Amino acid sequence: MKRFMLCALSALMAGAMLASCSRDQGIEPTTSTPVQEATPAPTPTLPPYEANALTGEARDAGYPAGQRITAVMVNNITRARPQRGLSDAQMLFEIKVEGGITRFMALYNDYHDIQEVGPIRSGRDQFFQLILPWQALYIHEGESVVMKQYAADYDYGLLNNNDGANGYRDYNRVNWLGESYNSGLPIEHTMYTSGENIQQYIDSNSVDMNRDYNSTFFNFVDYRQDNPVRDLSNSQDSAYVLDEYGPVVTDGEYVEITHSASYKTRFLYDAASTGYTMQQYYSTDGSWRDTVDEGNDTTLTFPNVLVLFTDIHVYPGHEAKDLQNVDYGPGGIGYYSYGGKTERIYWQKGTPLEALRLYYLTEDGQCSDVPLEVNIGKSYVTVVDVDEAANYETGLLADHDLAASDAATTESEAPDADVAE
Fold first, then answer.
1. Mean pLDDT across 226-242
2. Nearest Cα to 133, choosing from 359, 352, 371?
3. CA angle at residue 48 from 44 to 53, to 5 degrees?
4. How far apart are CA 253 and CA 393, in angstroms?
5. Which of 36, 65, 327, 385 could covalently link to 311 via disulfide, CB atoms 3.0 to 4.6 Å apart?
6. Vertex 339, ends 78 and 399: CA angle to 5°?
7. Phi then psi for 399, rounded to 5 degrees?
8. What is the 3-state secondary structure of 11-68?
9. Which helix (H) or strand (E) covers residue 265, if one does?
């Protein structure tokens, strides 16, 4: 087992906050006799770059060009599992909220493709800040007072939907414990919506869903290449593989993320599919279980797993409801897992209106000015408290007993600090 004990992480983050560096590209003079150069072969003309904004893949005939991205907040309290509609999302974010719990934000290129998604839960600013630069339709049920203020400050209007976009209650849904609303499952775990309901909301409120994107969410590998995949199966392919903080590229068949004592997520790499199977921890019995989409019985799998560390703390004045402030300003260290390898990277965001950006490290482990190339396909992205960095693990599957369960722990889950609408 290989565990990253990131005792030097804060120092590394501080150093990497310095301005990105560029290298001198000067040319040395020469006194050699000029020679006749061969005429270079003509460069093939590539078709225009028209990529899926969330995956970097070539757009298919059904791609909704000129339409806003849709973001849906999905409950992840243990009793709310399994969820529906997550396997249809092109990108999935997971971030800690109050009480040590985590929540999901699922991103979709086209809301028409949503058969059903939920249980829908309340909005939080740590998620909203990530989609604000993209002016996405943000769907949730309820919102924290901080989130409500963000929506007002940035004049988000009808793009901030607070009722699940004509959401409906499924009182008969049964969670993994066999609970339903009639047998004690709280009502907040029963809200769902669909593409049809979202369309009704858009039509009845004349919501402007027009938006042209001139870039993709990440800097994806160009799908027009002959082999559009970054392959670090041999770590020597990297220009630098070791710095004073350890390997830049290491084994990444197993990835484990600790959000809090009770909320953990891990990924198991499958070489056959070149994807990472997602599992979640159940503190009730200390087990790990596949993250399954109840709507189609599909286990969530991602070719890209991104873990971004930063400071997360309680908003001053909101201690009673434990509202979490995710500090996006300074940027920080992150890890990108793909193809069975994990690469240490740097991320930046800055202000709420700035998009999330990923960078390679320099040879001395600092933030470079070279954007990271992310492999095309779906991505799981999590923002994690730097206090949990020592609990982050990546390594070989063979080094982990995947059948073993961790010791069960319990953690109180604070009630959502929602604003009634």
1. 61
2. 352
3. 135
4. 10
5. 327
6. 65
7. -85, 0
8. HHHHHHCCCCECCCCCCCCCCCCCCCCCCCCCCCCCCCCCECCCCCCECCCCCCCCEC
9. strand 264-270
pLDDT tens digits, 367-397: 889 999 999 999 999 999 999 999 999 999 9
pLDDT band at 242 (very low <50, low <70, confident <90, very high): low
User: How far is it, in rounded angstroms, from Cα 395 to Cα 252?
Assistant: 5
Residue at token pair 């799908």: 223
Distances (CA, A) of 44 to 83, 224, 302, 408: 46, 11, 32, 59
Q: Which two tokens stand for residue 175?
A: 């969670």
Tokens 């007002």 belong to 152
CA pair distance 257, 337, nearest whole angstrom: 12
Model confidence over 249-300: pLDDT tens digits?
889 999 999 999 999 999 999 999 999 999 999 998 889 999 999 999 999 9
Q: What distance in Å separates the CA atoms of residue 409 and residue 296, rounded to the nearest whole number? A: 31
Phi, psi of 221 (to 5 degrees): -55, 140
Break the chain down into helix, strand, coil percent, rounded to 5. Answer: 15, 30, 50
Amino acid in the structure at residue 305: V
Q: How many residues does the chain have?
A: 421
- Phi, psi dihedrals of residue 183, rounded to the nearest 5°: -120, 25
Closest CA to 345 of 244, 248, 238: 248
pLDDT for 37 equals 60
| Helix residue spans in 74-144 (DSSP H) | 125-131
- Separation in Å, CA 397 to CA 134, 253, 406: 37, 6, 16
What is residue 104's three-state secondary structure? strand
pLDDT at 381: 98
pTM: 0.88
Which among 81, 54, 92 has a CA at the least distance from the CA of 383? 92
